[in-house]
Each structure stands twice: as structure tokens, then as C-alpha cells.
Amino acid sequence: MNGAGTIDGDLSAVRRHTALLIEHASALTDVRASTLCEGWSRAHVLAHVARNAEAIQRLAQWAVDGQPRPMYPGGTRGRDADIEEGAARPGPASPDDPRPAGAFVDDLAATAAALAPHLAALDGPLAVDQVEMRGGLMVSSVSLPRLRLREVVFHHVDLADGFSFADVEPDLLRVFVEDAAARLSATEVDQGIRLVSDEGDEWVVGDGALVVHGALPALLLWLARRDARGVTAEGELPDLPRGA
Fold first, then answer.
1. What pLDDT is attached to residue 3?
2. Cβ density class 210-224: b for 16+ within 10 Å, e for less
3. Percent of the chain with pLDDT over 90
4. 104 and 59 share a domain?
5. Looking at the structure, do residues 39 and 131 belong to the same domain, yes or no?
6. How confident is the model at residue 2 (pLDDT cuts 50, 70, 90)?
7. pLDDT by residue (tens digit) across 157-173?
8. What is the CATH number of the domain that holds 183?
9. Both 155 and 102 in a single domain?
10. Are 208 and 236 in contact (CB under 8 A)?
11. Angle value at C-alpha 48, between 41 and 43, nearest 5 degrees
12. CA distance linking residue 223 with residue 184, whole number of Å
């Protein structure tokens, strides 16, 4: 990805991958099919991505004007209720809409469009350097485009309808694997890991005692969704902590 690791690069990637997700979602024929997110249908995933756009917008506004806002009003319970409500809606936007996922696509597109100028504003003067995510985690204000990008790309893969991490730019995959390795390093892991990609990259978690091999898409699928297809290890793969 050109500009990987910069806010300009992240903003560009958000625009590109949001357009890909909307295009793909527009062609879905079954919004009730299961996904890579356990217990969630495609309708749940699409509703979540739309609500996440609103959540990231609130944090971006906070970053720019200095007025604190909750990422999700009502916290986790409010977030989950909004996703369930959104997932329960009928698919077509109207009786004449030929798109099975029409209402979800319209919601996805509208919330993404509303978010875009607020993300762009993060490349200017900021009132605060950090904002508070759900659960109390403080993050850099300029990391919000990257966090939104992660949601868009990962949940596009979660739809399980042909798009996979193999369709994502290698430089962006490296960014995501590095982020996942950092998340693991910040948790208590029972087993140190050295991630070695077929493309020649390497990341170390803990003491790096267990070597895990795979192509970048396979490594990310294991790290992000605990799916070990395409990943091999010089020993038994550990159970990764939830949320890492």
C-alpha cells in the first residue's frame, strides 16, 4: 500500500477498501448466511461495520473539537443491541429493490460517507492527542483511520463470500500482522512465537521459542480469526488469547 504507516496512506486505503466492501456487499445473495464471526450472519457483520463508522466518527469529532463522546452510547450492551436491531431488518431497501442486501448496503454506504470528512480532518489540527475506545482503551487520535481500515478489511473477509486476505495488498497485510503481533506482545501469552512469512518477514512475540510459518494471508487469518489453514509450526500451535 502506498503510504502504508502514514495517515494519508491509511485514509486512501480506507476509501479504497470501503468501496470494495460496498461493491461486494451489493452483490450478496444471502444476507443470513453464516460468517467467520461466530454467531453472526452477514447481516450482523454489515450492521456492525455501519455502526462502527458512526462510532469512529464520534471519536474523530472528539479528537478535533475536544468534546468527549462515547464510542458506543450505552457501552458494549448498547453496541450489541444496535447490531442485533440492524441485523434483523429486511434485506431489500424497498419492495422493488432487487438487491437482497440493499438496506444493509445503503446503511453501509451512508455511514461511510458521513465518516469520511471526519477522518480527513484528523490530518489537520487536533484538540486532543488521544481518545477513549470502548472498554477504556486510550488510542492515538491519528490512529483512527487505521482502526477503521482494520474493521473494513477484516469484516469484508468475514463475509465468507470470496474475498479473502489473499486479495489484500501485501504491504497492508504486513501492517496488520505487525499490529496483531504487537497486540499479542501486550497480552500474557503462554508460548513465545516467531512469525515467519513466506514472503521473508519476521515478527517476534515474547521469547520467540515457537516458529510459525505461512504466507502473509494465512498468518493473518490465524492471528485474526484463529483459523490455522495454511499455517505450520515447529511444534503445537498455541491457543491465542481472545482479543489479541
1. 40
2. bebbbbbbbbbbbbb
3. 82
4. yes
5. yes
6. very low
7. 999 999 999 999 999 99
8. 3.30.1050.20
9. yes
10. no
11. 30
12. 9
